[in-house]
Write a structure and sequence with these properties.
Layout lengths: L2 E3 L6 E3 L18 H23 L26 H21 L6 E3 L10 E3 L8 E12 L5 E11 L4 E9 L4
Antiparallel strand pairs: 1-2, 3-5, 4-5, 5-6, 6-7
């Protein structure tokens, strides 16, 4: 015979007792298995949902690289279309471009982009129109100068979507507008 706490009042009760001698609760040391099963099911659903939300769908998309790693798969409708390609690879360009832009500052930087203002407000072909490269343009960053003041900057990031890297960065003072 073991002693456990009553689930209602916390008093010490024998596991064989039919009711708690202090508060009268029936089956004072038993747990509600149905409740525990529902709680476990809810936790599993939220866990799987969170995993899918964070890691996304691992199914290949049309921009994923081919099996041999050579070229991203781009639909015929999108080839040569700057708007289509710019939108398709803007999320991929975000991290490498931000890292390269960050290296251009001697002091601290502050990103001012967010949900309402994306990192890149425009895109263009590079002057050489090199295959697989798109220039992403934005002005949502401030660089600190040697006096501690922040100054808005416009950045141009040439992103090679075949190699997933920023190949050329230019940062100039001022905003695009």
């Amino acid at each position: 015979m073991a002693i456990k706490e009553c689930r209602e009042c916390g008093a010490s009760v024998s596991t064989q007792a039919k009711s708690c001698p202090q508060c009268g609760a029936p089956g004072p040391t038993t747990t509600n298995r149905a409740y525990n099963a529902r709680l476990l099911a809810v936790l599993i659903v939220f866990g799987v949902g969170g995993y899918v939300l964070i890691n996304g769908d691992n199914a290949p998309s049309e921009k994923d690289s081919a099996v041999d790693g050579s070229q991203p798969n781009i639909s015929e409708d999108c080839k040569g279309d700057l708007s289509c390609l710019g939108q398709m690879f803007s999320v991929d360009a975000n991290y490498p471009c931000k890292q390269a832009i960050k290296k251009q500052s001697d002091y601290s930087i502050k990103w001012t982009d967010g949900w309402t203002s994306p990192t890149f407000s425009a895109y263009a072909w590079p002057n050489s129109k090199k295959e697989g490269v798109i220039v992403y343009i934005g002005d949502n960053v401030e660089f600190e100068n040697q006096y501690g003041a922040m100054q808005q900057m416009t950045y141009y990031c040439s992103y090679d979507y075949r190699e997933d890297k920023a190949v050329n960065i230019s940062v100039v003072p001022g905003s695009r507008s």
